[in-house]
Amino acid sequence: MVLVGDGGSTKTEWVVVDPERGPIKRFRTKGINPYFYTFAELIEELKQAVVPETVGIALTKVLFYAAGCGNPSSTKILTEAFEACYGSSIETHVGSDMLGAAIALWQNEDGIAAILGTGANSCVYQNQGIVKNVASLGYILSDWGSGAVLGRDLLSEMLTHKMDPKLIEAFYDKYEINKLDVLDRIYHQSKPNKYLASFTPFLKENSFHPQCQAILEDNFNKFFDYYILKYSEVENLKIRLAGSIAFHFSEQIETIAVQKGVEIDKVMQSPIDGLIDYTVDKSTVL
Question: What keywords sit in the KW lines (predicted)?
Answer without folding.
Answer: Kinase, Transferase
